[in-house]
Amino acid sequence: RLWFKERKSLLLREDIRNTSNIREISLLEMLSHLIPDRVGSPLSLNALREDINVAFETIRDWTLLLEQFYYLFRLTPWSRKVARTLKKEAKAYLYDWAEIEDSGTRFENLVALHLWKAVHMWRDSGEETVSVHYLRDKEKREVDFVLVHKNTPFCLIECKAAQEELSPSLVYFQNKLKVPVAVQLVHHPGVCKKMKEGNFIRWVVSADRWLALLP
To answer: What is the Cα–Cα distance from 137 to 189, expressed in whole angstroms?
Structure first.
């Protein structure tokens, strides 16, 4: 905890302040305290603007700055039409997931970070053009993550702390989008269940086992 507090203070009060023109460092600190509670949900810049009482452009720029300094990263919702994606809110996740208090959200952030690193590893090695997003429809059905190759989803990932029964949203999106593989990750060890329905494969598996397969 001491290391984390010192790191965050150095990031905000030295690294960012010395390379930007931000004068209201205390307000930027306030923003960094609000974001962990919003991890795993669509990040509303308008709501943050109202909480901190600054202009929308300021919140937008500060969030981008925190992203550039590796405090957070954002995942956009996936849609076959890019224009729809641009209009929807992204989700924010932290590079230091230990800052998150809620255990379920912290688990989701941990998985997000592993997927984020794997995608960038694939890109940097020139092997595949893969991206990671999330899924959400108008009825608020949602899947935590979707891996996409050439605008085609090939793997759905849902995070559940202990629930081994398949998420209805995971099954729904797999059927609707014709995604070959769906994975439900659980937080406790020793779980590995494989189900097959037609051309679809579904896994309920411990996160430590499945994440170990990623680069």
So the answer is: 31
Q: Measure the CA dihedral 78/79/83/88, to 10°.
A: -50
**What integer pLDDT is reported at residue 19 of this predicted model?**
77
pTM: 0.90
What residues have CB less than 8 Å from 133, skipping those under 6 apart? 75, 76, 77, 78, 85, 145, 146, 148
Backbone angles phi, psi at 47, to 5 degrees: -65, -40
Tell me if 134 sits within 8 A of 145, measured CB to CB: yes
Q: Cα separation of 116 and 113, whole Å?
A: 5
User: What integer is the mean pLDDT of 135-143?
Assistant: 92
From its phi and psi, is residue 159 left (phi > 0), alpha (psi between -120 and 50) or beta? beta
Assign residue 147 a region (left: φ > 0; alpha: ψ between -120 and 50; beta: otherwise). Answer: beta
Chain centre to alpha carbon of residue 89? 12
Q: Hey, CA dihedral for 184, 185, 189, 194, is it positive or negative?
A: positive
Neighbouring C-alpha atoms within 13 Å toward the C-beta of 213: 5
The closest alpha carbon to 176, from 98, 80, 95, 59, belongs to: 80
Q: Which residues pair with 42 in a beta bridge?
A: 91
Task: Report residue 74 as tokens.
Answer: 């954002």
Burial of 114 (0-12, 13-18, 19+ CB in 10 A): buried
> Does position 202 have pLDDT exceeding 70, yes or no?
yes
Q: How open is the CA angle 54-56-62, to the nearest 5 degrees? A: 80
